[in-house]
């Protein structure tokens, strides 16, 4: 489990996070949602330790990430996998080399064993046989899957996904969500997903944290979204008239039933 | 304000170098990267080094021959002057100034691009010491390869001087070779290699520094690349003077 306590982060005069306390549980997808500029990416980068907080703490289990020195932080990061918004696949390496990179760097496995693990990871994301292609030679959705495969290659305990659905069509988006959800459940990983995709919220939102102006505006799960009377949540999730109508219909149906 | 900026950048540069000097996570990965950089910096720069070197030698020889004119200084001095100017100054300094432009801007753009595409963040999250993995192999490769390029440059410049003076008949082959073999001070070769090593370290570490801390988009990346070249060039000239003071 990952826990944050009274997390503040400022960049000069810009106070981005204003006392965020939250819990992210193992074995289910934890979603951070909110409109652009709400502080989602900053919170994610604080959780990983890419930024240091102005105030507050991030706990991995009982360990405060920011009480550790650089070497100890790197040791924790060995248990972390991350899927970046832009995938962050190394252009000069093939798909197979990208996935193998963390093993090349941190394990003493033979090349044969490493390649076998690469194949396993590609199979896990349904991308078998593309080892020798370069990232530029595969589609955006495939790149996301390769990014997930690379994040999973060292069997992480924590998985972070920054906007995993951005730039993807709705069908591929759902496939990516299902894949992340499945890996999270199967491997009992603490997964934190930063998104503003409504399909994700309603599809895999087992623990949702809504941020507004750097503060936690609402927490709950997907089953509570429909009936919540939280104004911020309502405005954010049901922003379009179409979704608002759908919600009203769904609520009427429930009341009628 | 300028002093503040200078001190801030100097401090950050020293901290980056401190982080870069660390035990490799996997020696073989660092070795592979070092070899790749040796190829990129060394083999990739041979042509431009040959080209500038031959012209440096030719220009030096022609101008000195012109200055000698009808003086009483023996004409074999042309070979002697070309050799010493090339070894002490032209080969290490001009070659490294050119490499600061070619290699330095390339390194700043490569690392800066990785920063912007979140490749550096991705490596950090994997637990890689990015300062060490991205910077140290480049510095080691440059410090090993650039002195070799400088030695090649010195050799080719001397040949350039020969082509520019012996072929047109300004002096004879024998006179030029006699000049080359006169008053040789082996310490000058040592100075050439010291300069080459120091300049190689400066141009790679400074360029990597500007790339590593790049922020923003493509305009900032271009600015970082330009700053890398400008600052490297200024430092090369400054250290050229310091080494000259200390070693001559």
Automatic annotation (TrEMBL), chain A:
<keyword id="KW-0547">Nucleotide-binding</keyword>
<dbReference type="GO" id="GO:0005524">
    <property type="term" value="F:ATP binding"/>
</dbReference>
<protein>
    <submittedName>
        <fullName>Phospholipid/cholesterol/gamma-HCH transport system ATP-binding protein</fullName>
    </submittedName>
</protein>
<dbReference type="GO" id="GO:0016887">
    <property type="term" value="F:ATP hydrolysis activity"/>
</dbReference>
<dbReference type="InterPro" id="IPR003593">
    <property type="entry name" value="AAA+_ATPase"/>
</dbReference>
<dbReference type="InterPro" id="IPR017871">
    <property type="entry name" value="ABC_transporter-like_CS"/>
</dbReference>
<keyword id="KW-0067">ATP-binding</keyword>
<feature type="domain" description="ABC transporter">
    <location>
        <begin position="2"/>
        <end position="238"/>
    </location>
</feature>
<dbReference type="InterPro" id="IPR003439">
    <property type="entry name" value="ABC_transporter-like_ATP-bd"/>
</dbReference>
<dbReference type="InterPro" id="IPR027417">
    <property type="entry name" value="P-loop_NTPase"/>
</dbReference>
<dbReference type="Pfam" id="PF00005">
    <property type="entry name" value="ABC_tran"/>
</dbReference>
<keyword id="KW-0813">Transport</keyword>
UniProtKB/TrEMBL annotation, chain B:
<dbReference type="GO" id="GO:0005548">
    <property type="term" value="F:phospholipid transporter activity"/>
</dbReference>
<feature type="transmembrane region" description="Helical">
    <location>
        <begin position="43"/>
        <end position="65"/>
    </location>
</feature>
<keyword id="KW-1133">Transmembrane helix</keyword>
<keyword id="KW-0472">Membrane</keyword>
<feature type="transmembrane region" description="Helical">
    <location>
        <begin position="188"/>
        <end position="212"/>
    </location>
</feature>
<dbReference type="GO" id="GO:0043190">
    <property type="term" value="C:ATP-binding cassette (ABC) transporter complex"/>
</dbReference>
<feature type="transmembrane region" description="Helical">
    <location>
        <begin position="6"/>
        <end position="22"/>
    </location>
</feature>
<feature type="transmembrane region" description="Helical">
    <location>
        <begin position="139"/>
        <end position="167"/>
    </location>
</feature>
<keyword id="KW-0812">Transmembrane</keyword>
<protein>
    <submittedName>
        <fullName>Phospholipid/cholesterol/gamma-HCH transport system permease protein</fullName>
    </submittedName>
</protein>
<dbReference type="Pfam" id="PF02405">
    <property type="entry name" value="MlaE"/>
</dbReference>
<dbReference type="InterPro" id="IPR030802">
    <property type="entry name" value="Permease_MalE"/>
</dbReference>
<feature type="transmembrane region" description="Helical">
    <location>
        <begin position="224"/>
        <end position="247"/>
    </location>
</feature>
């Amino acid at each position: 489990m990952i826990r944050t306590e009274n997390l503040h982060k400022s960049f000069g005069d810009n106070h981005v996070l204003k006392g965020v306390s939250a819990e992210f549980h193992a074995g289910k997808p934890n979603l951070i949602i909110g409109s652009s500029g709400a502080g989602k990416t900053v919170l994610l980068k604080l959780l990983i330790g890419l930024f240091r907080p102005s105030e507050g703490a991030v706990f991995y289990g009982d360990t405060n990430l920011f009480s550790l020195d650089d070497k100890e932080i790197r040791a924790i990061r060995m248990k972390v996998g991350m899927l970046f918004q832009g995938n962050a696949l190394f252009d000069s390496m093939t798909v197979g080399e990208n996935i193998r990179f963390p093993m090349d760097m941190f394990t003493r496995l033979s090349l044969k064993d490493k390649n076998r693990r690469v194949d396993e990871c590609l199979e896990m994301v349904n991308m078998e046989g593309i080892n020798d292609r370069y990232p530029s030679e595969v589609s955006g959705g495939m790149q996301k899957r390769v990014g997930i495969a690379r994040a999973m290659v060292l069997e992480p305990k924590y998985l972070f996904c920054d906007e995993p659905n951005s730039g993807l069509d709705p069908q591929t988006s759902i496939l990516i969500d299902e894949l992340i959800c499945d890996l999270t459940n199967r491997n009992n990983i603490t997964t934190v997903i930063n998104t503003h995709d409504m399909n994700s919220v309603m599809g895999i939102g087992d623990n949702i944290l809504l941020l507004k102006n750097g503060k936690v505006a609402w927490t709950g799960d997907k089953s509570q979204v429909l009936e919540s009377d939280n104004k911020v949540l309502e405005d954010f999730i049901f922003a379009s008239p179409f979704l608002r109508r759908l919600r009203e219909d769904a609520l009427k149906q429930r009341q009628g039933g | 304000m300028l002093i503040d900026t200078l001190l801030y950048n100097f401090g950050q540069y020293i901290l980056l170098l401190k982080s870069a000097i660390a035990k490799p996570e996997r020696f073989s990965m660092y070795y592979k990267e070092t070899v790749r950089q040796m190829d990129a910096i060394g083999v990739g720069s041979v042509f431009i080094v040959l080209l500038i070197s031959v012209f440096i030698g030719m220009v030096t020889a022609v101008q000195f021959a012109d200055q000698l004119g009808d003086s009483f200084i023996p004409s074999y001095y042309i070979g002697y002057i070309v050799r010493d100017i090339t070894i002490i100054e032209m080969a290490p300094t001009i070659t490294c100034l050119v490499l600061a432009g070619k290699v330095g801007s390339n390194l700043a753009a490569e690392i800066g691009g990785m920063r912007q595409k979140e490749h550096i963040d991705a490596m950090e999250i994997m637990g890689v010491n990015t300062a060490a993995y991205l910077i140290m192999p480049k510095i080691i490769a440059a410090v090993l390869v650039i002195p070799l390029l400088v030695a090649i440059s010195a050799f080719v410049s001397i040949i350039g001087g020969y082509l520019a003076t012996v072929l047109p008949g300004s002096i004879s082959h024998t006179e030029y070779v006699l000049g080359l073999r006169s008053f040789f001070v082996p310490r000058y070769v040592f100075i050439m290699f010291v300069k080459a090593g120091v300049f190689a370290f400066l141009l790679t570490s400074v360029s990597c520094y500007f790339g590593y801390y790049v922020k923003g988009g493509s305009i900032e990346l271009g600015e970082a690349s330009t700053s890398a070249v400008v600052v490297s060039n200024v430092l090369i000239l400054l250290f050229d003077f310091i080494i000259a003071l200390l070693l001559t």
